[in-house]
Amino acid sequence: MRLRSCRPFSTSGVHRLPRLRLALLPLLAAVLALTVAACGSDEESSDESSPQTTASLDDCTPDQLETKSAGKLTVGTDKPAYPPYFEDNDPSNGEGFESAVAYAIAETLGYAPDDVEWTVVPFNASYAPGPKDFDLDLNQISITPKRAQQVDFSAPYYEAGQAVVALKSSDAAGATSLADLADTSIGVQIGTTSLDAVNASIQPSSEPQVFDTSNDVVSALKNGQIDAVVVDVPTAFYLTAAQVPEATVVGQFAAPGGDTWGALLEKGSALTPCISAAIDELDSSGELPSIEKQWMSEATKAPVLQ
């Protein structure tokens, strides 16, 4: 979902980033070692937010992986689980972008569909520090340095843009630029990168209204409590098609610094390199782009706001 160079939502380069980064790691490590020596530092470096390496898939078979349940892969996500990421509020049916990605990762690692188990994990709880009762969580979770101090992230499987959804009856519906939205009453979900995107890119004259859950955001828009919401682009199209038909997708804009999503794992999980290896394999084989095209293509239709 790349929003740069007038090519909104293209991900042609997103999934190659992890492999390029990994190829450079030995060189970067050598340079870093020389730099530390030259500076005479006696402090140990921290790797709390350093990028995870990938493993060989030969070392990532079910009989070698220490998962929460032996021989099973437990995947977490929030509830309700919305399209286009999940269909019919049932992650286990394999329908929807993230459901399909989860089963593709599992298959790449050698798990049968029946070996995948799902558990409910509230969005805000997913990246809280501490032990997890899942092996990985797929829930449109943006990779950020702050979160990476508390949890592990896999190689990215998607790059998202932000979208503005406004009631058709509001002045915001006619906005053609981010500046046109400065005086709009905007709502966002707490803990999401959308809040940072609103403050950095739209810079509204009044503080955005923050809500605990995505359902609360939708209800506020329906009730006219706010004029617009900011969510990721695919969610925006679902909102206007199924939940708030009296609203419209005003446009999309790039999240500051990009907004890549990764599978979330417990901090220091031995599974992280294997999940990254599976995602890289899905990308290089063309399966990941194919899954994205099937479930996320609608998002390319949103105009770009600058």
Name the features.
306 residues, alpha/beta, D-Maltodextrin-Binding Protein, domain 2, 5-stranded mixed beta sheet, 3-stranded parallel beta sheet, 17% strand, disordered N terminus
Outline of the structure:
The chain is an alpha/beta fold and 306 residues long.
Strand order, main sheet: write it out.
Answer: 7-6-8-5-9
Q: What's the name of the CATH homologous superfamily of the largest domain?
A: Periplasmic binding protein-like II
Oligomer state equals single chain
Based on secondary structure, the structural category is alpha/beta
Instruction: Provide the residue-averaged pLDDT.
Output: 84
Number of domains: 2
What's the shape? elongated
Q: How many E-type strands?
A: 10
CATH level 1 name of the largest domain: Alpha Beta
What's the CATH topology label of the largest domain? D-Maltodextrin-Binding Protein, domain 2
What is the overall number of helices? Answer: 9
Q: How can the largest sheet be summarized?
A: 5 strands, mixed
Query: What would you say the CATH architecture of the largest domain is?
Result: 3-Layer(aba) Sandwich
Q: Whole-Å distance between the termini?
A: 16 Å
Give the % helix. 25-40%
Order of SSEs, N→C? Answer: HEHEHEHEEEHEHEHEEHH
Radius of gyration: 20 Å
